[in-house]
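Look over both lines before class:
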Amino acid sequence: MPKNLVIVESPAKAKTIQKYLGSDFEVKSSFGHIRDLPKKGMGIDLSNFTPDYEVSADKKKLVTELKAAVKKAEMVWLASDEDREGEAIAWHLADELKLKPENRKRIVFHEITKNAILKAIDNPRDIDQNLVNAQQARRVLDRIVGFEMSPVLWKKVKTGLSAGRVQSVAVRLVVEREKEIREFVPKPSFKVEGTFLNQGKQEIAAKLKKDFDKESDAEQFLEQSKATEFKVLNVETKPGTRTASAPFTTSTLQQEASSRLGYNVTTTMRLAQRLYEEGFITYMRTDSVNLSQEAITGAKAQILSEYGENYSKPRNYTTKSSSAQEAHEAIRPTDFSVKSISDVQLNKLYQLIYRRTLASQMENAKIEKTVIEIGNAKLPQHFEAQGEVIVFDGFLRAYGIVKTDEDDDENNEKLLPKVNVGETLDYKKITATEKFTRPSARFTEAGLVKKLEELGIGRPSTYAPTIQTIQNREYVDKREIEPQTREIVKMTLGKTGVKKEVLEEKFGGDKNKFVPTDIGEVVNDFLTNNFAEILDYGFTARVEEGFDHIANGDQKWKEMMTDFYSKFHPRIEDVEEHADRATGDRLLGTDPKSGKNVHARIGRFGPMIQIGEQDDEEKPTFASLMANQNIATITLEEALELFKLPFELKEVDGHPVSVGVGRFGPYVKWGDTYISIPKGEDPLSVDQNRAEEIINEKKIADAPIANYKGEPVTKGSGRFGPFIKYKSIFVNVPKRYDFDNLSQSDINELIDAKLEKEANRYIQQWEKEKISIENGRWGPFVKFGKAMFKIPKKADDSKYESDELKDVSLDEVKKWITAQDPKAFAEKKKPAAKKKAPAKKPAAKKK
């Protein structure tokens, strides 16, 4: 029987650690937190900010197993991660498992290697209550902000919305960037570039040092250049260096994995977690760029072996951020002799970490930059050609060069031909092209992480969940922005003179960048107008500093909460009572047919256009916005176009056909069937022929692929992946099946399994009351509408068996529901009568 019980967070980590410890140790996983604030209700006593932690239903069985294991062990080693979250997990385990100080030890390590584990066992400590309190402060403060601000949004904007201290600030960044792009006024200028030939007929590409503001000035320069003899005025060669970047922190890893591998933040953290748990890299949540002496020595040995002594330059880096919270290392390989691993996806990220760490310990790259000045004294400006040669590749040998989004396409390094000062050059062509200034780029995931880090908002562990949350809440998305078209002037000086042409260029298009949704903008504007301090970047950063002070033992966490809440709660009450309802209402003008006002605003089902007022005798008419439109930019003309939808077409196969736009986008309606119009296609352009094509495509897609007990079976692909449909039952098709070539036996097997599962789902069901007792993954539960409730224990403190639940009465089940939600069966209040709003004047037309 093992004398020692080691508890870690994840089963993967447990498996790795078990390999390094002898038979005296048993390693078990807590699967993360075993308890937390309750999912329903605040879960905090606001008089003294004491949290009411509870073991979640899905962890009760696990906790029972851990308690049994604790009883058998002489010593319990709490080996959760060494950050604040890990410290809190250890504290919750100690408290819930009733571990006495003399029978528990806390161990930490930032890599899962045999040496690190054994060293940790030799150097145990107790739980650091300051770190625990810093985590509690964050958890409690964020719960209070979310639970008090969200109901205000339900009342003042739309039900089902949420707010949060970090997520709302992240949304604000995206919204403000979008507004900046909308308000940006592009300024034109003319960029002049020339291609010159030296005496050996080698081409030299150069550009004028300064752009021209006016077309006439650019044209005049080309006319002057026509009869000009171009010469090499100066050749300058400068030595330079490029320095390796520091090893990865969480943030820089997320950014580089995005630009080099195309991984989103969530994917990067998932793969990094696996690399850490399997012992390949050090802990992946860190603000530190520091490397241990052991790592520096290991990297040096690998560099000497692989590249030679002239490539080695051992160095350590210091963390610039004053708020770097954890004292452990940068992210690095645990063993530099392991150059690759077998898992392809893991290996891509591992290689990035491996090469970045190695490069940080290598010599600078030496470059030689050449600048050639070309021109004539008669010309007002001269051309400049730049080129770079890598004399010694240094760290680039391991890491290479990566081009960022911010790099100018025209700054590519190139090798220039040999020329001498005074040498005459012949121009091949000189062009003056109209260019427009560009607004700041929309945020990528990596760019948003970088900005949050710059502002001191959030910490390494919060970036991925924050970015995922704002997308899940549908405050931002990554929809494709279709480019616009504008005319540009291009003038080319060739041997026959100046040729002028007007070209079209596309601009403003974007893919895979964050764009705020309409509801995201409305929520952001409401919060920034009414909770300016909470949404303030400086305030959010100061809160993070407060957590740091608590972690260092310099501040008591409940004092911080008292100070925060004394200012925050009165603001909540004031906004709830006095703030106007927010719909993002924008008056577009007047409908020429009816003379009524036309509004763009948020409605019950999302962004829409409204003609008329709510208090008019004749009810307003509505139209949904299309996916590529938004409240802030739609014009009156575009809005009125939407009212041409739906429109009728001729019948197909005896069923009426119409084209419209609804909650889920534009559609063709054929009889009772709604068929989505392909993305990017304008529904107003759908004529009879196109509608019939769409209907025929649907017919083919919906054609039965088989029969089951005499009934047709169809297949399709939906939100949760491929499925087959039998009667009204949808059956998901797992990846182990060949979806394109399902056999009859496959179909029988899938439907049989689904029907058996459905038959075992309900223990009792009262359809009229929308109440049921169902079998769930973690045991039986009660469902009322969409809400789920626990089944209480019997009077003798034992659990109900399934057979016993078959005999429970409806009244008894209602008592169970009411005990957990006293308002579950309360009558809903009728909405108060709306006050008559004064008629709004149409917006004045711009002159």
